[in-house]
Input
Amino acid sequence: MRLKEMLATLSVLVSLIAIPVLVGWYHNGYVLGRHPAGTKVITLYAVAESGAWTLDKVDGTNYWWKDFKPATIYLQEGDKVVLRLQSTDVHHRFYAPQLNIGPIEVEPGLVEEAQFEAETPGTYRYYCTSICGDCHFYMQGWIVITAKGQSPQEPPPLGCVHEFEPPPENDMVAWGRYLYQKNGCITCHGEDGKGGIENPNYAKEGDIEDPSYVKGSVPAHNTIAESFFLEEKEDAETFVEWLIDKQEEPNIPPPDIPRFFIVLRKCEDAIAIIHEGKNCAKADPNGPEPPLQMPSWEVRLTDYDIDAIIAYIITLYEWEEEEEWEEDQE
Amino acid sequence: MGNQPANSVDKAKDAPKDSGQVKRFRIDLFEKIPFLKKFCKWRSFQFLAVFPNLVIFLFFLYAGLFGSRVGNRNIIIIFVWIFWWFLLITFMVPFASRIWCVLCPFPFFGEWFQRRALIKVRSGKTGGLRNKMFGLNKKWPKALSNIWLQDIGFLALCTFSALFLTRPIISVVVLGGLFLVATVLAFFYRQRAFCMYVCPVSGFQGLYAMTSMIELRAVDPQVCRKECKTKNCLTGSEKGWGCPWYQYVGKMERNNYCGLCMECVKSCPNDNISVFARPFCGDTQVKGYDESWKAFIMLALAMVYAVTLLGPWGTIRDWANIAEVRNWKGLGIYAGIIWFTALIAIPAVWALASWLGKLLAGVRSISTKEIFVKYSYMLVPLGLLAWIAFSFPLIMVNGSYIISVISDPLGWGWDLLGTADVAWRPILPEYTVYLQILLLLFGLFFALKRGYDISLTLYQDKSQAVRSIIPTGVVCAVIIFAFLRLFTG
Output
């Protein structure tokens, strides 16, 4: 009986230690160790709430409080790499077009693997290309491949910003600015709509093979006043005021600005794009999908929200000051 | 009001009253299967039963903490809330009474602390017991010596079930919390106070164990009452621990509070305890308001769950799903509906039906209260079968997750048995509804049949008995038809 009692006690104590040890041993030794020797196995966890593919291990103990940061993956030229992609919440899609990885569907709770070789030194952007939450458009990161013997260059920081203070909703332009930032429009169209965010599928000559897209970058928004044919600052201000007044009085008469109906038509076209979304055109129809598609915002934004965004981006145009212009004339 | 006094150590010497229990046949399983008796008398029996389960439970906690936070890819969610629940409610309780209590890991460390032994028995003296026990061994407060805590605890847990049914970490908090409470209570209170008065799972198991097709009883109760002077089943001996559930087998006439640990079988000096097979719904006595309300709560929860999880109303599902939708007002409405239905609406309807039953029977000496409590037994088979009818679609719809999660229990990309990638597929969905109809009608049949049996123990005259049962019988029928309507669309 004494021996039995000792064995029983020992079994209980051993089991308390054995569970984490065995789990760790099996996972690290067998699951991660089944790739050829020398392979870099990197696990990326997709977290919608933080808008990040992160290297931090995500589980029940930290998901609900931690703000995960997007991973920057540093590799050496020639590294053989296995990316283990795991969604911790909703459906995500991993895409690193310049490295020819993906798009890979990553279902909640499932692990997908992507193998590649770090061939060409450079800094490559990766994305989530399935709309996954408020921070979706921020869900990007970098893969930095460094030539042998060189030190890696740190790419610009990325990540979802949560701290936007919502202005009063009736301040239409400020509300539009808030939505522009909160919904991640700036991730593609640039800070203050300056554009210039490169479409990574657009390859310049001498870059990776093919495909060249019709547009090399996502359109800027700080020139929208011009493309609306709003030629004077006053016209733009009058049009924005008309948009604001229209919210309270839908049948308000048209403002006195030149070519108003063309302006209105252009405005309606822009509203339609926000409503319905627009796929990025491909120069090479067989080339990979561009990652930066304009999604449909029909469900997530109200008509007022969309008008507010239009009003905001009109105000982004940098007008030449009249005095300066006059001086220039002289 | 409570049910504890009949079981207490102090009152063990009281002679049993005439229970009014419906008499049924029984088959002595120890006599028919001698190996079973030998196995149950084996001192290592309980440890060997619970130890594997303890390891599995600890692994589930580990998986809940560090595994995937996606519910259907984490073993704690799939195995506890789908697989275990289905086995418990569909097979263990109706066929094997409180067999789960033998396997349950919650009281493991507390009991180990109290006994300082996993297999052996310590002789000695602790209070009225003939065993040496450790800890403070306080008596459980008399005011709480009933199952009201279990009633309210289960109701409270179920109000937030959408949280822990989908979130592994919340499941860890709930299960780990119960584990911790069971352990801490064992330091202060004697034996299994947690199981007896606190554990929310124990509460409904006890109630529905009355339907079970097995029972642990004295072979000849007269031997216990007249010949046995030591009452070792209750007080323990050098061969076995005193009953952790404070039961005296000589007076035990219901399954409600017997955890089937088999200590009494080992300690009985007269070899007078056995496990018997018996018909479904062998115990027919509800003994207090706390047990009646347990029946109301369980029925209400089966109704609310069926409406929420199997019904077509997305709004109600959104109210319950606080983790995803975060609609606190909706959750408030949902909680209000559950608590009002369970604690007020169903009991009020039952009280009205009982009062009408009394009027129809025309016998003044039998009070509405007595009818209310005793006839509430009708809701035991009714509620159990409603739960089974609700649980079958859950396992048939989610069964394929069991196959995949067993290969990848933490959702880390393992494939232990080569089944990790088995796609989700419901099992025979076209037959589910027929099964549900059969189960519900079976439940209604037993509710009416046993209700009639109970009425015959109350009334001398058959026609009075029948008249008294009509209103509560109608309530049962209406409830079942509501379930049928819901399940058949």
In short: Confidence is low (pLDDT under 50) at residues 1-18 of chain B.
